Amino acid sequence: MRKCLILAITLIFCNITQAAVYVIDFKCEPEAYDVFASMTLAELDGQFLEGSTKLARYHDLTSGSGIALVEADEPSLVIEFVNGWSELCESVITPMVDDAEAMEILTR
Question: Which domains are delineated in the chain?
Answer without folding.
Answer: 2-106 (3.30.70.920)
